[in-house]
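cron nightly-structures :: item 1 of 1
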Amino acid sequence: MIRLLIDCDTGIDDALALAYLCSLDHVHIRAITSTPGNVDVEQVAANNRALLKLCSKPDVPVLIGARKPLDIPLVTTPETHGPQGVGYATLPAPGPDSLANNDAVDYWIQAARANPGELTVMLTAPLTNFALALRREPRLPWLLRKVVIMGGAFYYQGNTTPTAEWNTHVDPHAAKEVFAAYTAAAEQGLESEKLPILCSLDTTERFEMQPEFLTKLAEEAGCAEPELVQPSDVEGTLSKASNPLVRYLSDALRFYFEFHRHYDQGYIAHVHDYFAAGVAAGTLDYETRPATIDVETESQLLFGTTVADFRGLWGKPANAHVVSRNDPEAGFAELVKRLGTLARKLN
């Protein structure tokens, strides 16, 4: 059993990752903490509660921590994920949350202290909440079992600036603090297996979803009619699938396909956060390289850029394991199978 704390800024690919994690019997989601990023944090929390309701997990607590980045104004991405963060999808009204008024950062620290060495953390948002948690509890790297971060770009073009990845660019000061905290922890003897696993654009953009994925998902879910999402469709065409999960994912991902086409990447969707979810859940194969990571926060030209020292040239210990290989074909087969099974249960 993997006991998972999730921090996200839901977000189309965050939502896909959450639905996938809800489909896994061996994953127990302890809580979802919400960080501003793709949309403002109140909308993130509403999306999380609604998606949990859709996936028959309404009892998972959803909490809010930071409401803005540490040192800079919040920038959101309605052009990428839609004004509500879920593309064209319509989610059920989110129910009330008994822990809604609790602070997410305090919850993280209390949960880690109460369960030392047991909790896996997956972060698919800017690292604001994690940086705040590390400020309040510097022993957090020792208390957590595993940390998985989706963020950064190294030998790869950025997706926000020519060199910067979105999550890091939204709050580069938080990311810099997180990696500095792990450098300090490594210097104090933190075990290598407790260093963050970093899923950067170098490997997450290999998870390039094609529209045919939704056709396969509908078949796996037992839908009577084929689910066809095609480049020739009028933009904003809504799914008529009878299954609520297939319909939601189809409407969300259509928006994502259209966004990528608008930026000359083709009618595809990079589902970064699903790969991070598979790493956190232990269901996807990957390889990593140890590195020392830092983040540029001073240069206007390179603001938010992540830099990896793979060769020890800085003379500092590794503070992360950067994913260097993955298997998208096997990953998409896994995703269709698991989401199809979950969708059948929701009919």
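cron nightly-structures :: done
Residues 215 and 227 are 5 Å apart (CA to CA).
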